[in-house]
């Protein structure tokens, strides 16, 4: 019996010695497998968190109060509708979305804190330039004026603009922003001259430049208080002063891919507006905006934001985004602006229809275009003299149309180039003061200087309805050829009758744009 017990104990011991190590080995193997699976889950979680922090596909919404634009700039930027470059408006609306990128602010690189005080985010920009003009465009005073950054044949250094903005978010549904701008500008106007009769009289009329001095203005540039009502996908209603959300061009240099805007922007459409604006994202591919405002505001004529008659102007834009994947973004829209724009006159209306498109086929290339057609009734202005003699206009219906096409390509990360062609047919002379076809050819190499700073990321803002980032510091060298079918370009001194002029002018500008 003892022999059997001993045999059984021996067998049991041998089996235990064989099985237990295997069990421990199997358990260790399972533990290792669990560790590997946990590691994979952690990596997956990290990817999902990074994806949530990455910019959402731009949905091309109206460039509302919160779009990308710098300081007194317009839609399309962080901090409420301003390019990070000038972080200044309310939170970005769908369409021109804020892009959140992890990176260091320029202030942090030199040991200073981010520009934020008591929950209010500060930002801004400034612009300086060196300019040369062969001739200046002659624009009769009733049509505004042409920028005279330098006297004809002279090189001029300038401090053009300084802007400062503040914005804050009180809640996901409530935000506010404001911006001021200090701007130095000098416009030249053409005035009819005749010692005996003057241009209203029967004598010979000769145009001449006025002797306008440069002016430095402090401007209440942007303002918006925005509330999002819980209606459908969220109806954003804003009160303030905004950039008109047509096309890609804006009145501030940090929002331009060139140094100067097109003829369409300068003469053909309103640039800013003051009043109420509403934005609604119907679907990821469809957005709608509408507004009721005081008047048509233009930098060409330096219109104030206060109302000039007893009526209001109305408008809107419908935007479509059929493609928004990866680096690609395609957006196009149609908009309109309508209202009485003459002082103390609500009978005669001015209106425009605007069509625009932006396409980013891949990250380095951006294409944009805009076209406009406009009319106004009851227009009157003086006759024009030599070198473009034309009779006076009395209570006439006038029209105009224009377009531009623009392309920007980043050759390398820190160097890009913009090219633009502009066309403006002022068939009745109501917008430029002369019945003419005005064209321009512009080429602008752009050095993204801030991209050469190690550790400094982009601002986080993009140009309106695009995926192209706005940089902290850009240096632009622009050459622009202007051409008209009338003799409207002159190098005459102010107060000297212009008996002869040219069909062309050449402009060269070295421009420095800094955002903070």
Which helices and strands occur, and which strands form pairs?
Elements lengths: L1 H52 L24 H4 L24 H4 L6 E2 L2 E14 L2 E2 L8 E2 L7 E17 L2 E12 L1 E2 L1 E4 L12 E4 L5 E15 L5 E9 L19 H6 L3 E12 L2 E8 L19 E13 L2 E12 L10 E13 L2 E17 L11 E20 L2 E12 L9 E13 L24 E12 L4 E2 L13 E12 L1
Antiparallel strand pairs: 1-2, 2-5, 2-23, 3-22, 4-7, 5-6, 6-10, 8-9, 10-11, 11-12, 12-13, 13-14, 14-15, 15-16, 16-17, 17-18, 18-19, 19-20, 20-21, 21-23
Q: In percent terms, what proportion of residues is strand? A: 35-45%
Low-pLDDT stretches: 1-9, 11-27, 54-103
Spatial sequence of strands, sheet with the most strands: 2-5-6-10-11-12-13-14-15-16-17-18-19-20-21-23
CATH topology of the largest domain, by name, is Porin
Shape: globular
Q: Major sheet, described briefly?
A: 16 strands, antiparallel, barrel
CATH superfamily of the largest domain: Porin
Rg over CA atoms: 30 Å
Total count of domains = 2
CATH architecture identity of the largest domain: Beta Barrel
SS content category:
mainly beta
Amino-to-carboxy terminus distance: 96 Å
H/E element sequence: HHHEEEEEEEEEEEHEEEEEEEEEEEE
Percent range for helical residues? Answer: 10-25%
The CATH class of the largest domain is: Mainly Beta
**Helical run tally:** 4
Mean of residue pLDDT?
83
Total strands: the figure is 23
Give a nutshell description of this structure:
With 516 residues, the chain is mainly beta. It is 13% helix and 44% strand.
Explain this structure to me?
The protein has 516 residues and is mainly β. The chain has two domains: 1-53; 58-515, Beta Barrel (Porin), CATH 2.40.160.10. The protein has four helices and 23 strands. The protein has helices spanning 2-53, 78-81, 106-109, 263-268, and strands spanning 116-117, 120-133, 136-137, 146-147, 155-171, 174-185, 187-188, 190-193, 206-209, 215-229, 235-243, 272-283, 286-293, 313-325, 328-339, 350-362, 365-381, 393-412, 415-426, 436-448, 473-484, 489-490, 504-515. The strands form four sheets. It has a 16-stranded antiparallel β-barrel. The longest helix is centred in the N-terminal third of the chain and has 52 residues, at 2-53. The radius of gyration is 30 Å and the shape is globular. Mean pLDDT is 83; it is low at 1-9, 11-27 and 54-103.
């Amino acid at each position: 019996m003892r022999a059997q017990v001993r045999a059984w104990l021996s067998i049991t011991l041998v089996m235990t010695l064989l099985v237990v190590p295997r069990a421990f080995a199997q358990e260790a193997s399972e533990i290792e497998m669990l560790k590997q699976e946990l590691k994979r889950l952690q990596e997956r979680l990290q990817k999902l968190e990074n994806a949530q922090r990455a910019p959402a596909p731009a949905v091309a919404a109206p460039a509302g109060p919160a779009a990308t634009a710098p300081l007194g700039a317009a839609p399309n930027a962080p901090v409420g509708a301003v390019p990070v470059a000038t972080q200044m408006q309310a939170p970005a609306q769908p369409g021109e979305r804020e892009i959140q990128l992890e990176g260091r602010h320029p202030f942090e690189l030199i040991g200073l804190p981010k520009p934020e005080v008591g929950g209010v985010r500060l930002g801004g920009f400034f612009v300086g330039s060196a300019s040369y003009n062969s001739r200046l465009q002659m624009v009769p005073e009733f049509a505004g004026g042409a920028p005279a950054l330098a006297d004809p044949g002279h090189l001029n250094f300038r401090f053009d603009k300084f802007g400062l903005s503040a914005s804050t978010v009180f809640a996901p549904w409530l935000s506010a922003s404001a911006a001021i701008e200090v701007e130095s500008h000098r416009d030249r106007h053409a005035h009819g001259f005749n010692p005996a009769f003057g241009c209203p009289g029967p004598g010979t009329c000769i145009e001449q430049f006025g002797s306008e001095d440069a002016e430095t203005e402090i401007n209440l540039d942007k303002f918006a208080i925005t509330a999002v009502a819980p209606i459908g996908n969220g109806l954003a209603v804003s009160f303030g002063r905004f950039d008109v959300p047509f096309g890609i061009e804006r009145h501030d240099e940090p929002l331009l891919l060139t140094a100067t805007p097109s003829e369409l922007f300068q003469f053909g459409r309103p640039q800013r507006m003051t009043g109420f604006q509403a934005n609604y994202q119907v679907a990821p591919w469809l957005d709608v905006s509408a507004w009721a405002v005081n008047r048509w505001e233009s930098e060409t004529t330096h219109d104030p934001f206060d109302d000039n008659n007893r009526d209001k102007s109305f408008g809107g834009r419908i935007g479509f985004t059929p493609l928004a994947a990866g680096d690609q973004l395609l957006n196009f829209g149609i908009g309109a602006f309508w209202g009485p724009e003459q002082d103390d006159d609500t009978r005669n209306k001015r209106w425009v229809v605007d069509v625009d498109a932006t396409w980013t086929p891949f990250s380095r290339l951006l294409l944009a275009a805009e076209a406009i057609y406009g009319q106004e009734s009851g227009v009157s202005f003086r006759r024009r003299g030599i070198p473009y003699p034309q009779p006076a206009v009395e209570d006439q219906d006038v029209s105009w149309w224009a377009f531009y096409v623009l392309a920007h390509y980043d050759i390398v990360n820190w160097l890009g180039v913009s090219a633009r062609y502009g066309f403006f047919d002022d068939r009745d002379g109501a917008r430029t003061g002369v019945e003419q076809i005005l064209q321009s050819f512009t080429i602008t190499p752009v050095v993204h200087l801030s991209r050469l700073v190690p550790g400094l990321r982009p601002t986080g803002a993009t140009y309106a309805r695009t995926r192209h980032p706005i940089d902290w510091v850009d240096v632009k060298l622009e050459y622009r050829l202007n051409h008209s079918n009338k003799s409207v370009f002159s190098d005459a001194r102010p107060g000297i009758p212009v008996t002869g002029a040219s069909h062309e002018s050449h402009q060269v500008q070295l421009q420095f744009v800094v955002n903070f």
